[in-house]
Amino acid sequence: MVSVISRPASPIQSPTSAPSLIAESVIEETNTLILTSLSHVFFNEEILTALREHFESYGELYAWAPLKSFGRIIMVFWDADHAGRARIECDKMLLTDAEGNM
User: Fold this and answer.
1) CA-based nearest residue to 40, from 6, 16, 70, 20
2) Which of 4, 14, 58, 59 allows an S-S link to 86, with CB 3.0 to 4.6 Å?
3) Is 89 exposed, middle or buried (0-12, 13-18, 19+ CB in 10 A)?
4) How far is it, in rounded angstroms, from Cα 33 to Cα 84?
5) CATH code of the region 1-7+30-96
6) What is the pLDDT, as a whole number, of residue 94?
7) Do residues 30 and 81 make contact, with C-beta atoms less than 8 angstroms apart?
8) Which segments in the chain show pLDDT lower than 50?
9) 7: left (phi over 0), alpha (psi -120 to 50) or beta
10) Cβ-based neighbour number of residue 2 at 10 Å
11) Contacts 24+ apart (CB under 8 A), 36-39
């Protein structure tokens, strides 16, 4: 499974009518996404190119940083809205190799 981790840019708190013991939900807007738990097989140039092209379909990337030793890819979009759309549509996306390994 690939997890998408985001770094907060500016928190937007949901409105509440009265104080509550339940924590308010916070929506964090960010232009940064991190793909985690990637097998070393995903760091092949062809696969990296395909992944980058996939995420560029959501908007222009400012930075793309594959980190093979950490099993991660960090990407920064120019526009936080594009990162948000990519996160929503790709969250919980499973990436597997030809044998079905993650």
Assistant:
1) 70
2) 58
3) exposed
4) 9
5) 3.30.70.330
6) 76
7) no
8) 1-3, 6, 10-14
9) beta
10) 20
11) 36/2, 36/3, 36/4, 36/5, 36/71, 36/72, 37/1, 37/2, 37/3, 37/71, 37/102, 38/2, 38/71, 38/72, 38/73, 38/95, 39/71, 39/97, 39/101, 39/102
Q: Which amino acid is at 100?
A: G
Q: What is the pLDDT of residue 14?
A: 45
Q: What is the pLDDT of residue 25?
A: 60
Between the CA of residue 53 and those of 11, 57, 94, what are the distances in Å? 29, 6, 17
Q: Letter for the amino acid at 17?
A: S
